[in-house]
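Entry:
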Amino acid sequence: MMCSYFMGRCKCSFWFAVAHDILGVFIMMVGVFGGLVVHDLFIYAGAIIIFLSLIWWVFWYSGNIDLIHFVLRAASLVLHTHHQKYLHQLKVIFLV
């Protein structure tokens, strides 16, 4: 239950990001400690996978941003009154 609280609402993006991080680190460690001929390929591939996991982290973070409803309502009211003021000014200009 506590783990779900820290993950937020976008659990799929969270787990995709964690999986890509683990996979990237694993592939990178195979390149470092594997003793293979193409060790640099594994190191670069792991780094690229970790870099691409940032996409999932951004999705997870942006999906957990909370917008307060009254702030949105206040902003829409301000825009509406601002819009009405300019409409009134346009009507006055074109009627004159």
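The radius of gyration is 25 Å.
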